[in-house]
Structure formats: structure tokens, C-alpha cells
Amino acid sequence: MAKVRDARRESLEDEVQSALKWLKSHSTKATLDGMARYAIPSDKAFGVAYRDMKLLGKRLGTNHELAAALWGTGVYEARMVASFVDDPSQVTPAQMDRWCKDFDNWGICDTMCFNLFDRTPHAWAKVTQWSSSKDEFVKRTAFALLWSLSVHDKRAGNEPFVKGLVLVQRAAGDERNFVKKAVNMALRAIGKRNRALNAAAVTVARRLAHSPNAVARWVGKDALSELTSPAVIRRLALRLDV
Known about the structure:
mainly alpha, Serine Threonine Protein Phosphatase 5, Tetratricopeptide repeat, 2 domains
């Protein structure tokens, strides 16, 4: 039994090293240098384009243990690939908390939400939990996840999104750049889901647009300009849902 476990560990380590080697072979100095322009730390990165990370993720397939091992390397691109490789049905709330606490940039935060976290059975609970965090990127994750669920969760009714609007309104005054942008995107995404949620989101956006808080005013006005635009109104009018 011990020999089998050792063989599995060696096999897993081989897969990790092979993935790292592949990532290094697809890295460029231009990509690495360009990360700073997007506020993404490059001290633990190779400089690999997103399309290549996605390609590797598809090649590796779904593998929960491999995803954990890739995350454990601490390498930016390996962690990004983990978002494509992990099995959402095996992701636990504790794992989500651990990984989320390690987020130090919007890229890994949003990628994890849109590729993995929003497909776990714990997604909605984490939106609520993380929305009150004092950590900038944990709080951003709450609203990036709400944004992602607005786009991807086709089975959810309006109720969780209405509750999400309460969280949006509560966090709209947070002046930290990566939080306020995610709050804004969540508000806009909810308002584009259907006509009923558009009306609810527009109400919140108008309320925020008249807030005494400058950050909340920006969140509200920016969302309002899109949610009341002719293009959005026309698109929602074509949908059967209300």
C-alpha cells in the first residue's frame, strides 16, 4: 500500500514538473514585463499568455489532486491552470477559503471565480461570507463571484441576485480600487440578467448615484449608464423571462 502511495506521489510530481516545464517553454519576456501594466505581480511568474494557460488546462483535463499540487507551487501561471483543472464537485469550502486568502491580484481572483468557484456548490455561501471581509482581494472575490454567477448560473432564480444587490449597496462605498470595480461589475451583470433584475439594479444604481459618498456615486452612475442604455433595454426586451 505504501509503495502504491509513493508511486502516486511520484506520478503527481512528474505531472507538476511537466506542466511547469511546458509553461516555461511558452513564456516570453514581453509577457512577463507587461504584467506590471495590469497590476499583476511578476515575482512568482514565468510570463505566459492566458490563451496558453487555458490550452494547458484543457490538455491536462480534470484532476483535483493535480490542481492542488499546481496551486502548491505558488507559481502564478500554475495557479491559473489549477482553475481549469480542478473538479468543482470536489472543491470544499475550506479549500476555497485557503486559496482565496492567497489571492494577491485581480487576475487570479477573477479567473478562479469564472473558471471554478462559480461551479462549486458553495459559491453563493461564499459570496455572502467574503463580502464582509476586510481583506481587499477576499472582498473582491465575493463580488467577482457574484458577477460570475450572474453570467453563468442559468438555473438560479431572481432571489439570490436581489440579495446580492443588498451586498452591492453595502459595499459600494469601499474606496479600494479592486473592490469598487468588482462591486460595479456585479451590479451591472445582475442588471443585464433579465428585465426584473434590470429594474431592481437600476433602482440600486440610482440610489447610489445620489449617495454622499463619492465612490458609491461612481459605482452607481457608471452602472446606470449601461443598464439604462438602448442596447441593454433592446436586448432584455427580446428575452422571454421577466
